[in-house]
Amino acid sequence: MQTYHVKLESPIHQSYKCNRAADSLDIDVAKKSVHEIKVCADIDSDFSIGLILGSSGSGKTTLAKKMFGNDCFKTSLNETLPIIDQFPNNFDYENCAEILSGIGLTSVPCWIRPVFTLSNGQKARAEAALLMTKNDLTIIDEWTSVVDRTVAKVMSHCIQKYSRKNNKKIILLSCHYDVVEWLNPDWIIDCNTQTFLDRRL
């Protein structure tokens, strides 16, 4: 077990309107602008799927950067190229089609158009598909926020199936608690409750 500790602080702007807004509350705004997360977790033991949950602003992204480095969310997605041309060279057409279809990007025209022409939801699926093929450890932030819940379910099933079949470690961040059922993660860090649940036991 290792303890991960992050502290989020937001400066309070001093202006007439900001002061009026702060004065209208029955709370100490200065205290509310500081948020700390402290959680003990075992992420070094073998796993396939890890999940960091929490409401928006709960510190999921900051915690992930603390755990895995500031560059953990960098992607090599090239928006000027079609997604199907961005998979590693050892992925043949059938491999690419299987991953894209499995993650809910079933429209073939979306595969062959430049990524910048896709909708936000389509782009999110394309990026998740690419991330899954690039690294042994993949970290995907808020992958279901710009898709409906049916697509989120399909994406979740595809990600966890791909991870376990190909011996990949994938960590996902989400504000949606319904993904727990679909992903069946090996461990969960909940930033709202600052708890770690090891489901490998």
Give an account of the 3D structure.
- Strand 4, helix 7 and strand 5 (169-174) form a beta-alpha-beta unit.
- The protein is globular and about 60 Å long.
- With 201 residues, the protein is an alpha/beta fold.
- The two termini are 14 Å apart.
- It has 8 helices and 7 strands.
- A 5-stranded mixed beta sheet has the order 4-5-3-6-7, sandwiched between helices.
Task: Give the structure's gist in a few sentences.
It is built from eight helices and seven strands. It is α/β, with parallel strands linked by helices and 201 residues long.
Jot down its keywords.
5-stranded mixed sheet, 201 residues, two-stranded antiparallel sheet, alpha/beta, 7 strands, 36% helix
Distance between the termini: 14 Å
Spatial strand sequence of the major β-sheet: 4-5-3-6-7
Beta-strand fraction estimate: 15-25%
Number of strands: 7
Mean pLDDT: 87
- So what's the overall shape? globular
List the helices and strands and how they pair.
Elements: E1 2-9, H1 16-23, H2 29-32, E2 34-41, E3 49-53, H3 60-68, H4 93-102, H5 108-112, H6 120-134, E4 137-141, H7 149-165, E5 169-174, H8 179-183, E6 187-190, E7 195-198
